[in-house]
Write a structure and sequence with these properties.
The structure holds 2 protein chains of 2 kinds. The longest helix of chain A has 17 residues. In chain A, 47% of the residues lie in helices and 0% in strands. Chain A has a domain of 164 residues: Cytochrome Bc1 Complex, Chain D, domain 2, CATH 1.10.760.10. In chain A, helix 4 packs across helix 6, helix 7 crosses helix 11 and helix 9 crosses helix 10. Chain A is mostly helical. The N terminus of chain A is likely disordered. In chain B, a hairpin with a 5-residue loop joins strand 4 and strand 5. In chain B, 41% of the residues lie in helices and 6% in strands. In chain B, helix 1 packs across helix 7, helix 4 crosses helix 6 and helix 9 packs across helix 11. Classes of the chains: A mainly alpha, B mainly alpha. Chains A and B meet through helix 1, helix 2, helix 3, helix 5 and helix 6 of A and helix 10, strand 10 and strand 11 of B.
């Protein structure tokens, strides 16, 4: 038995010497992410997992922390992120945020019914002033490609993912840093409206380039945790 | 008939008296606290709380440290760790050092209730009074958090004090770690940390049908509900460290990675023990723990059961899947690419009898803990959404039967059980 163990250890040692060099890159370290979020974090709209490439860095950082600290619920993500430090989470966020890669076109499918498309677009672009419901575009940018450093774009995401996120915010299973403006917005929406918005967003083409806007179109309509309420470009990322 | 009845009643009374006596043995007199605590007490207590990883259970995910709320699922129900901050209603505000010591040493709460052994007083009973006082001093120094405790959710009869009293009479003895003059100071300190405050045995031993640690101390066991296997610490085929160098053992505890040439790292629930506790311990204490663990008497099973040979079908299907999903990182010969990716050939975490951890690792993926020595670990992707139960079983069987590995076959049923958490 001992002899066998020695043999095994020897063979391991030999194997270790012969092992191919692993690239010392952040991309290589994060293969755990790209398995689901697509090569280079570019998951397309045909699945469930969201694309993460090119999203604003603070937004990604807040989500990584949220999974680790219980504001978002997905056991696989929580398990993966539990062992990681804030410094590493910030590096991960910065890496995926820095990837400037093209989007694939929306998957072809039947056109949305006209009334649904009209309501979805109107809620997204204008909101519902009568109910004091802000438009998506007021915070997520007039091109809906997000606003640096902490507001994500809404285009190029799977419909099911969008529905699930708005639903999770309505029920409180997804939370953002307080004050949780998205929870207030989602809770003001009806289930039908969630469906209309998600379906409309999911079939929009993504403009090129799809960078997050450097500034908000106007002051935020409501306070949002972790989101600087600025209408001038931010150079320094918030902690 | 009457006599039989009287005899029965007397016997019952004697039984109850015995259970009560066993429950109250070695209880301290509740004297008023001595001199007020000093800053040294508090600092010492903070360190000891790290060594015991108290916050690991007594903090909700993302919650205020030590304010409680985390649910610990057991086969008998869920026990919610209480608020340990000095809040007068919900925390330890009304407690004294003597009451705290009684909780640690005797497993009884300030109001006299018996505590559930999910709180590992079965091990913490060995903590000294001095250390208990320091812990109490530290907890009293925390900001009081107004967070009510969640009532436990336990099924009958486990929710009764009577059942708990019987359990304690059978399975709990207040104790201490005896000093062994024939051993070094480091060994003795290690014994205290491993057997007492560190409560390693709470995971690294098997539990009987009533949830009590049983079998060989530190002899390994499946953690109930989580179903991760905490390997034996005294078996060379599992995680015994008798043949490992002390610096390697210290590195595993402190950094979460043993050794760059082999790429071994902690996995599963042990990751949290490193991030929350061990990485914060002093070099002396880690060396003491390593010294003690290295010197544990070996408990290798004589004539271990021969692993069942792995079927040709599993080897073949698993081999194809290995080529497709695993070979890029773990290599054609299972040689891995340490320190980034561990070798699978000759790796006892791969070959040990329980395949539970392997199934978890492939399903859920994972990272080694971010520690100062390994701040940016390489990750393993989760395969839960990629591989079916049968595919996962065959790829693991392949790995357990290749390159000189002699593990047993993994069945799709094993995978299905672990995937569904049953």
């Amino acid at each position: 038995m001992k002899f066998l163990l020695v043999l095994i250890l020897l063979s391991t040692a030999v194997g270790a010497r012969a092992a191919p060099a692993v690239p010392d890159t952040i991309a290589q370290r994060l293969q755990a992410c790209t398995g689901c979020h697509g090569k280079e974090g570019r998951a397309a709209r045909d699945g469930y997992q969201p694309r993460i490439a090119g999203k604003p860095a603070d937004y990604l950082y807040h989500q990584l922390q949220g999974f680790r600290d219980g504001r978002r619920q997905y056991a696989l993500m929580t398990g993966l992120l539990d062992p990681l430090s804030d410094a590493y989470l910030r590096e991960i966020a910065a890496y995926f945020s820095s990837l400037d890669l093209p989007y694939s076109p929306p998957a072809p499918g039947p056109a949305l019914p006209a009334e649904l498309a009209r309501r979805g677009e109107s809620l997204t672009r204008e909101g519902d002033p009568a109910r004091k419901l802000p438009a998506c575009a007021q915070c997520h940018g007039s091109a809906l490609t997000g606003v640096a450093p902490a507001i994500p774009g809404l285009l190029g995401l799977p419909r099911d993912y969008l529905v699930a996120q708005l639903g999770a915010w309505r029920t409180g299973t997804r939370r953002a840093l307080a004050p949780d403006c998205m929870a207030q917005v989602a809770q003001a929406l009806t289930a039908d409206e969630v469906g209309m918005i998600a379906q409309w967003l999911a079939v929009q083409p993504v403009p090129e380039p799809a960078h997050p806007a450097p500034t908000l179109p106007a002051a935020l309509p409501m306070a949002c945790g972790g989101v600087p309420d600025v209408t001038t470009p931010v150079t320094k990322v918030s902690p | 008939m009457k006599r039989v009845l009287i005899a029965f009643v007397l016997l019952l009374a004697a039984g109850v008296a015995l259970v009560l006596a066993l429950n109250f043995r070695d209880e301290p007199a509740l004297l008023a606290d001595a001199a007020p605590f000093t800053a040294q007490h508090i600092a010492r207590g903070e360190y000891l709380a790290r060594a015991g990883n108290c916050a690991g259970c007594h903090t909700e995910r993302g919650g205020v440290p030590y304010a409680g709320g985390r649910g610990i699922a057991t086969p008998f129900g869920t026990v919610f760790a209480p608020n340990l901050t000095p809040h007068p209603q919900h925390g330890l505000g009304g407690w004294t050092a003597a009451l705290f010591w009684r909780a640690m040493h005797n497993g009884r709460s300030a109001d006299g209730r018996l505590l559930y052994p999910v709180f590992p007083y079965t091990e913490l009973t060995r903590v000294t009074r001095e250390d208990s006082d320091a812990l109490f001093a530290y907890l009293r120094s925390l900001p009081a958090t107004d967070k009510p405790n969640r009532p436990h959710v336990l099924s009958f009869p486990y929710d009764t004090q009577a059942a708990l009293a019987v359990w304690r009479a059978a399975f709990f003895r207040p104790g201490s770690v005896a000093h062994d003059a024939t051993r070094s100071a480091a060994w003795n300190r290690g014994a205290y940390l491993v057997e007492g405050l560190g409560h390693c045995n709470a995971c690294h031993s098997s539990r009987n049908a009533l949830g009590a640690s049983s079998g060989i101390a530190l002899g390994g066991g499946l953690i109930p509900i989580q179903n991760w296997y905490a390997p034996s610490l005294n078996d060379a085929r599992e995680a015994g460290v008798a043949d490992r160098a002390l610096p390697q053992i210290v590195a595993l505890l402190h950094d979460g990675v043993a050794d760059a040439s082999r790429g071994g790292s902690v996995t599963g629930p042990m990751v949290e023990v490193v991030t929350g506790s061990l990485q914060h311990l002093s070099a002396d204490d880690l060396l003491a723990m390593a010294t003690y663990l290295k010197a544990l008497p070996p408990h290798d099973v004589k004539d271990p059961p021969k692993p069942t040979p792995i079927s040709a079908a599993a080897m073949e299907q698993g081999g194809k899947l290995y080529e497709q999903h695993c070979v890029g990182c773990h290599g054609k010969q299972g040689e891995g690419a340490p320190p980034a990716y561990p070798p699978l050939a000759g790796n006892r975490a791969v070959t040990m009898a329980s395949a539970a951890n392997l199934v978890h690792i492939v399903l859920e993926g994972g990272f080694a803990p971010s520690t100062p020595a390994n701040p940016r670990p390489y990750g393993m992707p989760p395969f839960a959404t990629v591989l079916s139960d049968a595919e996962l079983a065959s790829v693991l069987s392949h790995v357990r039967g290749s390159w000189g590995n002699a593990g047993s076959e993994v069945s799709p049923l094993d995978v299905a059980r672990l995937r569904s958490g049953r």
